[in-house]
Structure prediction request, 76 residues.
Amino acid sequence: MFAYGQILTCLIATKTPHRIVTAGKWKRSSGVPRDKDGARRMAQQLYPSVSQRLRRKKDEHRAEALLLAAYAEALG
Prediction:
């Protein structure tokens, strides 16, 4: 929680627009499959140019970061 507080403080101090959204909300809204490997498979399909960097099971967090960025971009 300490890192979260630091990031939030920096965003507020620099007047950077931001939204706080739960993982469940953005994943449901984006249609991310519920299974553990769903985000990785979806990111590989949406971003074929980087699919090679998402080939390992442990790349699921990298895939979620891509999908979360896409969600944020769609919000405007």
In short: The chain is about 60% helix and 0% strand. The radius of gyration is 14 Å. The longest helix spans residues 60-75. The chain has one domain: 19-75.
